[in-house]
Design brief:
By secondary structure, the protein is mainly alpha-helical. 51% of the residues lie in helices and 8% in strands.
């Protein structure tokens, strides 16, 4: 599992390897590829414009996902509790 921590520093996908460089987080991947291929802007103003576009796309993605989740919750009268932290458990770490 410790080897996995090096591959997945946040415990999540996506993870990309590019010529020996391991990059996690989708926006970091986009910025890495943009810099690598000279698409990240030729100065501070252009780089800021690229950041605005990437962050704007992220905000749209988060807003859309939140809206979808809210609509799904309205269709399910009593959704199950999927928060594992609030659910009782009989497991201990020694079981794993």
């Amino acid at each position: 599992m410790k080897a996995d921590a090096a591959l997945f520093p946040f415990g999540q996908l996506p993870v990309m390897e590019d010529e020996g460089v391991l990059v996690s987080q989708s926006n970091a991947m986009l910025r890495h590829l943009g810099r690598k291929h000279a698409l990240a802007g030729a100065g501070l103003a252009q780089q800021a414009a690229v950041d605005v576009l990437l962050d704007g796309a992220e905000a749209i993605k988060v807003s859309s996902a939140t809206s979808l989740i809210d609509r799904l919750k309205q269709k399910i009268p009593n959704p199950p509790n999927n928060n594992l932290a609030e659910q009782p458990t009989n497991h201990s770490l020694t079981n794993y």
